[in-house]
Amino acid sequence: MKRILLAGAVAFGLLTAQTSFAQVQVGIRGGANWGFASKPEFLGNLTPTLHPSPGPMGALFLDVPVSERVSFRPEIGYVQKGFVVKEGLDLNLGGFELPIGARIAYQSQNLEVPLLLKVNLSDGAVQPYLIAGPSVGYALNGRIRTRATALFTTKPFDVDMNYGGGMSRWDISGVGGLGLAFDAGAGKFFVEGRYTHGFTRQVQTPVVNVNVRNRGIGVSLGYSFPIGY
User: Fold this and answer.
1) Nearest 5°: CA angle at 146, between 141 and 147?
2) Which residue blocks in the chain are alpha helix, DSSP H?
3) Cα 122 to Cα 140: distance, rounded to the nearest angstrom
4) Which CA distances in Å does 197 have to 31, 172, 201, 215?
5) N or C: at which end does the chain have fewer Cβ atoms within 10 angstroms?
6) Which stretches does DSSP call E strand in 38-95?
7) Mind listing the pLDDT tens digit for each residue in 80-119?
8) What are phi and psi of 27, to 5 degrees?
């Protein structure tokens, strides 16, 4: 009798584990990120305006349910961060205004690991949801891309960023966003928008506290499907 009860308990446990595991989703997403940076307040108008720098982003992720509406969503992905500086002047040549300037893009290629909570707001064929949580990033490499502009734009000139000197490779940030998921066969298509707020100073100087931190607005499309059948 004990053996029968034990076998039944083991079978029930395996069935429960398999059912729970079947709810886990694996997914992929890709899209674009518009990176920009905070501007040190003490510099005021001494520095030019920092403009957004568009770049690619993508990730693989798991969606692990922890309750009926809440799931844990760890990701590993890639995102391009940075910002753009535009400098210029208008040169008057006999009444003809000739714009002369430069476009300088600071771009870093980052490995990103967000650890997010996802909250489904409703059931049905279309499911809106919220995501939020911390993220850890590491800059694999970076460059400063310069283009001269006048009547035409020149080819870019690239210089590698000096990580380990005045630039930080690590970036701790917070992520928040909103998405819409759509049932598609056994899985789900989704569209997602998110905002990333960096907390790590990207310029490390021993004398002056330069408060330059990464920011980003991303939009992505993706697909997820259950595993463990």
Assistant:
1) 140
2) 2-22
3) 39
4) 18, 9, 12, 5
5) N
6) 50-51, 53-65, 70-93
7) 998 887 765 444 444 444 445 677 788 899 999 999 999 9
8) -150, 170
